[in-house]
Amino acid sequence: MEKILISKDENIKSEIIIENDLRLNLEYYFENKNYFLITNETIAKLYPEIIYKFNKSRVIIIKDGEKYKNIKTFEYILNELLKAKIERKDAIVALGGGVVGDMAGYCASGILRGVELIQVPTTLLAMCDSSIGGKTGFNTKYGKNLIGSFYFAKKILIDPQFLNTLDEKQYLCGLGEIIKYALIEKSCLNKNNFDLLNYLNINQKDDVKKSLDFIIHACASLKATVVSIDGFEKDLRKILNFGHTFAHAYETISKYKKFSHGLAVAYGIKCASLLAYQKELISKEYFNNIDFLLEKFDLINPKIEKKFKKYKKDEIISLMYQDKKVENSKINLLLPTAPAQVALFDNIAQPSLEASLP
Prior knowledge:
Blueprint: E1 2-9, E2 12-18, E3 35-40, H1 41-46, H2 48-51, E4 59-62, H3 71-83, E5 91-96, H4 98-110, E6 116-121, H5 124-130, E7 135-140, E8 143-150, E9 155-158, H6 168-184, H7 196-202, H8 205-209, H9 212-229, H10 244-253, H11 261-278, H12 284-296, H13 302-309, H14 313-320, E10 333-338, E11 341-345, H15 350-356
Parallel strand pairs: 2-9, 3-4, 3-5, 5-6, 6-9
Antiparallel strand pairs: 1-2, 7-8, 10-11
């Protein structure tokens, strides 16, 4: 068992527990209270033995997919919780990937002005990133995650064995965020030297897939360090958005149907890296290295790029200006400045943005 703590003050306290097969005894990590389970249709079918451990009246199952991360699902969950007579001393367990985690987390923050939350991520992306750090919310037609709150789970229970049922699309989705961490590691101020960038450079896709325990621990540790320093994204935590401003624009314009989040992040990294190279922030060698990684792990290829290029540049840029990270009508972008390092740049001229869209 590995434990990683996120702790800054009384408002930010989370315990991350990473252990193979903990899913078999989830109740061991629960206290003596009523737990409401929120999951999706796919997970409910894959893991009925977990569902059966909860009182049937306290199990809420939503549809699977990013397009269901919306206000209708939010309202449905809240109504189900109220119908089941949830009380303030009760808790919500989010069993699933990023959509379930974000939706359940936001409901936990709002219902009865806040009940305890436990995250049990089942996807690679959720284990490495989205279940950690307290970001919750849902999408709108105007942009991704524009409605939400910071609400920190008391516990984040990670069982890598859930990944045995992960399909290739979800695996690639997680890889997008993993590569992000490799490219920002030195900016995360973590005392450990995981050297994810070198690890991904020297290992092949199948080898990385066999060592996901290490990957999950590294990414979780990096994010925990950043969140412990800056829980509410006032400064350091902004580095975790590397590639995301571009990504969210593409997800929004495609109505959350065409691209997985990880794939959109990978393309966002490509755009940000191209912009950094054009601004002479990084060398040609490092720019090529980033491109090589994205292609090596099947996140970027001509067929995928064609899907992104079908959208007009001015429409993408317009959506980027609606991103929640815009300040004083200026787009703030994280750009690579050196291997495994990024920095924040604001007020990037529109011609530069257009040139960064391949």
